[in-house]
Amino acid sequence: MLKAGVLGAGHLGKIHLRLLEQSDKYELVGFHDPDQILAKNVGDEFGYTSFDNINDLIEKTDVIDIVTPTLSHFDVAKKAIEKGKHIFIEKPITKTLDEAEELIRLKNKHNIKGQVGHVERFNPAFIAVKNNIKNPMFIETHRLAEFNPRGTDVPVVLDLMIHDIDVILSVVNSNVKSINASGVSVISKSPDIANARLEFENGCVANLTASRISLKNMRKSRFFQQDAYIAVDFLEKAVEVVRMKDAPKQPGDFDMILQNAEGEKKQIYFENPEINPNNAILDELETFADAIVNQTEPIVSLEQGTEALRVALKIIEDFN
C-alpha cells in the first residue's frame, strides 16, 4: 500500500480523505491544512491525523494529494516533488502556465508520477462511450451550475469549463488553431458566464458554454462525427448514441430511413452502451496508485493537465 497524505481539508479535501481511508491501495497517513481551527475540527470529527507542519506530513508519505486552493498548488507540489513524492493535484494544475511547465520539469528531474484531477475522464457515462468517439468534427458542451461562492476565486473557465476542455482535448487528435471567446462578470469580479469556440487544425470545431449563475445544473456534451451522434450527460450519467448506415434494399416496417438531396438513403439506429456505476474520484485516485506501482503513464498526466490550462488561459485572454 502507498502511504498518502492530503493537503487541504475543505469540502473536496474531506471527500479525498474519506476515499483514501477506504481504499485498499492507500494507507492514509494524515492531512495538513493551514486553517488550524478547520484542521482540529476535521481531525476530531473523523479521526484523521492532522499535521501542523506540512514538511512532516510530506516526509512520512509516498503520495501527496493536493486539494488546496489553486493559488497554492505550485508551491506545495514543488515541495512534495523535491522530496521525491508522487503528486495527485486537483484541477486546474496551477494558476499559470509557467508554474505548470516547471512542475513537469521537476517531475522529470525527480522521476516521480503526477496526475491532475480532471474527474470527468472517470465519469461512467464518458467511459461507456469514449471509444465510440472517433474523429468528431463538431462538439457542443454546456456546463451550468447554480451559484456557489466556493470556486469564485478563479474565472468560470478555470472553475467549470476546464473540465470540458480536458475531455475535448482527450478525444480530438489535433492542435487548437484558433479561439474566439467572450465572458461576462455578473456577481464575481471574474467572469461568471463564458462561451468559447475552438477551431482545430483538422477542421473540428468545439463550442463550449459555462455558467456558474444558472437556475439549474447541467453538464452535457454532444459529439458529431461521420455517421454518428453521441451525447453524454455527465450529471445524470446517461448516454445517447445515434448511428447511421446504408439503408437496406427492403427496409422493415419500423426502420427509420432518411434520404439526402442526392437520393442516398440511410438507416438510423440506436446503441445503448452499458454504463457501469462507479465513484469517479475513487477511481482516479486508485488508477493513479496503479500507475505508480506498475510504472505506467497516469490517465491524466501533468502534461495533459497543462494543455487544458493552456487552452483555458487562451480563452480568458480572448475576453479582453
From TrEMBL:
<protein>
    <submittedName>
        <fullName>Gfo/Idh/MocA family oxidoreductase</fullName>
    </submittedName>
</protein>
<dbReference type="InterPro" id="IPR055170">
    <property type="entry name" value="GFO_IDH_MocA-like_dom"/>
</dbReference>
<dbReference type="InterPro" id="IPR051450">
    <property type="entry name" value="Gfo/Idh/MocA_Oxidoreductases"/>
</dbReference>
<feature type="domain" description="Gfo/Idh/MocA-like oxidoreductase N-terminal">
    <location>
        <begin position="3"/>
        <end position="118"/>
    </location>
</feature>
<feature type="domain" description="GFO/IDH/MocA-like oxidoreductase">
    <location>
        <begin position="156"/>
        <end position="216"/>
    </location>
</feature>
<dbReference type="InterPro" id="IPR000683">
    <property type="entry name" value="Gfo/Idh/MocA-like_OxRdtase_N"/>
</dbReference>
<dbReference type="InterPro" id="IPR036291">
    <property type="entry name" value="NAD(P)-bd_dom_sf"/>
</dbReference>
<dbReference type="Pfam" id="PF01408">
    <property type="entry name" value="GFO_IDH_MocA"/>
</dbReference>
<dbReference type="Pfam" id="PF22725">
    <property type="entry name" value="GFO_IDH_MocA_C3"/>
</dbReference>
